[in-house]
Amino acid sequence: MSARNPGIELDLGWVSRVRVNHPAVLRRAQKIQSWKLVKKGWQAAWLLRAVTCIDLTTLSGDDTPSNVQRLCLKAIHPIRDDLLKSMDMDDKGITTAAVCVYPARVTDAVKTLKTAKSNIPVASVATGFPAGQTSLKTRLEEVRQAVEDGAREIDIVINRTLALTGQWEALYHEICQFKKACGEAHMKTILAVGELGSFTNVYKASLVAMMAGSDFIKTSTGKETVNATIPVAIVMVRAIRDYFWRTGHKVGFKPAGGIRTAKDSLIWLTLMKEELGDGWLKPDLFRLGASSLLADIERQIYHYVTGKYAAYHELPMA
Ligand SMILES: O=C[C@H](O)COP(=O)(O)O
């Protein structure tokens, strides 16, 4: 990952001046979604780039050591070797960016990756994921424990109650404490945009999270009714851009929740390229949080290489 965002003093004046032009955001979103996507070899290359940006995720009540182990092995070998070979990409060390699990499964993931001699980081959701409705003490302890167990990235959820009631100062101080608890681990801050009510709140929460030192801001837990959408992403990436212009600190962006198709991943990459530029098209500044996207990407790459769609048994690990 790139240099950390050290954060800045809370600037409440900046937060209170925020206004978002709702119709303009929707128009921009429609435009981005209507653009023609790259095709053929370019598309295959973009899909491989998308793979390297995936936080390969399992966040289920029935997660076990064995399905976490399987997830880690898939993260190490995300695309079948023969397909990569046909594209002259078999020696490029393509893996996903991270694996993302619940705190109780961190040790399983760390152990599997270590045994496989892989340096892929383990990311853990924390702070009472997904609702964040536990005491601050418990949420902080959860972060510390995940770091102690070997997580190198922590995906925290914000306290939506504070955001919805305009308690930005309190939210800032909570996030600062999470950042301290993360230590060397990189912190991604989940805004749960589907529960924030308005684009203005999304922009304000993005700013406060970055001021408090978030290394990434992330749209959603994947458990809200509305998760990652293009309009909300435009609001967040523009907050990232404004924060960068004002402070010189680059903050990453992670859309998550409901991202399932290769085409989705191409749209997300297009959005990043158009709104933030090529510098944000790499895993240290862009992640796709997804539990089932990789299967469709591998399927599309199979089609690009062979001209046929794979039968289920041909991509068994997907
Ligand atoms: O953080 C990642 C999300 O929980 C993944 O959501 P998903 O299962 O809809 O891909």
UniProtKB/TrEMBL annotation:
UniProt cross-references to Gene3D superfamilies, sorted A to Z: Aldolase class I
Protein's cellular compartments: Cytoplasmic granule; Nucleus
Superkingdom of the source species: Eukaryota
Record GO terms (molecular function): deoxyribose-phosphate aldolase activity
Positions of transmembrane segments: none
Pathway: Carbohydrate degradation; 2-deoxy-D-ribose 1-phosphate degradation; D-glyceraldehyde 3-phosphate and acetaldehyde from 2-deoxy-alpha-D-ribose 1-phosphate: step 2/2
A GO CC term attached to the entry: nucleus
One GO-annotated biological process of the protein: deoxyribose phosphate catabolic process
EC number: 4.1.2.4
Catalyzed reactions: 2-deoxy-D-ribose 5-phosphate = D-glyceraldehyde 3-phosphate + acetaldehyde
Active site, UniProt feature: 218, 254
This protein's UniProt keywords: Cytoplasm, Lyase, Nucleus, Schiff base
Pfam families: DeoC (PF01791)
Hydrolase as UniProt keyword: no
Matches recorded under InterPro entries: Aldolase_TIM (IPR013785), DeoC (IPR011343), DeoC/FbaB/LacD_aldolase (IPR002915)
This protein's record includes keyword Glycoprotein: no
PANTHER family: DEOXYRIBOSE-PHOSPHATE ALDOLASE
Subunit structure: Interacts with YBX1.
Family: Belongs to the DeoC/FbaB aldolase family. DeoC type 2 subfamily.
Role of this protein: Catalyzes a reversible aldol reaction between acetaldehyde and D-glyceraldehyde 3-phosphate to generate 2-deoxy-D-ribose 5-phosphate. Participates in stress granule (SG) assembly. May allow ATP production from extracellular deoxyinosine in conditions of energy deprivation.
NCBIfam families for the chain: deoC
Name of the protein described by the UniProt record: Deoxyribose-phosphate aldolase
